[in-house]
Amino acid sequence: MIKLDKQAELDAQYGSQSKDAKREKRLRKENRRRCALYKDWLTQYRKDEGTDKKGFFKYLQKEFVDFHSLKRIQPGSRGKRKSKKLFRNIAREIHSDKLPDTCRDSEMKEMMSTILGKCEKIKDCIAEPHTCAEDEL
After folding, report:
1. CA-to-CA distance for 109 and 123, rounded, in angstroms?
2. 85-98: buried (b, 16+ CB within 10 Å) or exposed (e) per residue?
3. Is-contact 45 38, C-beta < 8 A?
4. Does 4 score more than 60 pLDDT?
5. What is the per-residue pLDDT across 17-34, written as a single tens digit (0 to 9) for each?
6. Integer Cα distance of 127 and 124 in angstroms
7. Which one-letter DSSP state was computed for residue 1?
């Protein structure tokens, strides 16, 4: 009995090493990194005074691999499938419901919805290229 109490005391000092505790620790660390990245994006978003946010989207294309990949897809049936898949990945990562708790303020949600709207436009233009003007992308 004394040995078990000692082990419980050591676990409390150094944190639990169970699979769930390790997963929670990893998730907290990932969420802190994601939030820091999104705050950097928000800084750039605020700097861009234009209504179309072209400067911000150029910055995002350099910083966000999935967005860059989506912009580079060629129209056609193959491109349509790729764009749907990439859009799903982007939405899974930046949708306002999927944001870390520390990053759910109104400005952040507004920026993320703007990004998702732009991604959806790009996806739709890849699927139906004759309906989109080049300057929309």
Report:
1. 21
2. ebbeebbeebeeee
3. no
4. no
5. 677 777 888 888 899 999
6. 5
7. -
Among residues 111, 63, 71, 101, which one has the least CA distance to residue 87? Answer: 71
Whole-angstrom distance, CA of residue 131 vs CA of residue 127: 9
What tens digit of pLDDT does each residue of 36-84 get? Answer: 999 999 999 999 988 889 999 999 999 999 999 999 998 877 888 999 9
Mean pLDDT of the residues in the chain = 85
Tokens representing residue 3 in the block: 């040995």
Return the domain boundaries, the chain.
18-136
At 74-122, the pLDDT tens digits run 887 788 899 999 999 999 999 988 898 888 899 999 999 999 999 999 9
Q: In this structure, are residues 83 and 127 in contact, taking their beta carbons and an 8 Å threshold?
A: yes
Structure tokens belonging to residue 38: 């999104």
